[in-house]
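task queued by scheduler; priority normal; single chain, no ligands, no partner chains; default sampling; output format set to structure tokens
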Amino acid sequence: MDFKSNFESWKETIAKFCNSDVKLPNQSIDECTANAETLAKEATKDKELLGQAGLDITLIDQLVPLSGALRYCQAQWMSEYKEQKAAQQEWLEKSPLAYDLRNELLHHLTYAYRNNDNLSKKVKRIREGNGHKDMIQDLIDLAILGENNPEPLNAINLNPEIITTAKATSSEMSVLLAMVNGSKDDNSNTKALRDKAYTLLINNMSTIRECGRYVFWHNEDRREKYLN
């Protein structure tokens, strides 16, 4: 069974795991899953003895598929994380240009509409406010205002392409900002699933190891297989 299939079979259990019981990874996921798969092999050899000591032996059978589910969750989270980091870099590169475009449009429209009281007031209202979200909204507001009132812009020979560019830039920067803000949000569902899958796996491993150390307390060679 592949990792995605492992995840699909565990998805409901992982999703329902109590948030307050989640443990954040204190080791690499690769290390954790490799250890789980090794433990599964060793515990399978001792399944009968561990079962006689009261261990729910289904925990042993769950190690490999749960490990696969965790590997899948980690891959999904890493993909999302890398996309967020790429979005942050793209925002840093493109946002100064977007602000410049907003300021340029304000400059042109302020002058073009200076003799029209109604349009001049609209430009002034758009100029109010600050911040990234405001800049993105300003771009689309200015573009629509210019699109609906082209005559004064034509009179100053403003290139109409700037209106098209403003609309496209507003849309692009809105998507980027959402991704950037998402990267600052600790409530990523993808990361939450990864952390829950990790917790389920290490809880199973801990229970099996504890029982193994109990059973093999006089057998150092076997007991070592159940050390953390």
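post-processing summary
- The chain has a mean pLDDT of 95.
- DSSP finds ten helices and no strands in the chain.
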